[in-house]
């Protein structure tokens, strides 16, 4: 027996436990490293997807802005047609048809703008 009160058998048993723990920790470290590498790859893919979605969003925002710029023109066109044709004009029926077409176009454009 040594001065610490541990015999040789107990000492070898502790050494075996330490070696077993070391092997287990090495395996856990390898597993953790593989998990970290997989998460890093996943993160890169997500970043690529995010960049793609951001580009798509910018394109859609630009389309929306462009379509909003075009909307007032159709309303102005209706005013121009309305001012050029009066109710006493022999073409009053034509004026009514044009007004209806313009209202329909405005509704379609508004609906299309709301979808974007």
**Beta-strand content:** under 5%
Specify the structural class: mainly alpha
Mean pLDDT: 81
Count the domains.
Answer: 1
Q: Shape from CA axes?
A: rod-shaped
| Strand runs, count | 0
How would you describe this protein?
With 116 residues, this protein is mostly helical. The chain has one domain. It is built from 2 helices and no strands. The N and C termini lie far apart (85 Å). The relative contact order is 0.06. The model has no long low-confidence stretch (mean pLDDT 81).
Short description:
Keywords: Coiled coil. The chain is mainly alpha-helical and 116 residues long.
Protein topology:
Layout lengths: L7 H77 L7 H24 L1
Helix pairs in contact: 1-2
Notable traits:
116 residues, mainly alpha, 2 helices, 87% helix, rod-shaped
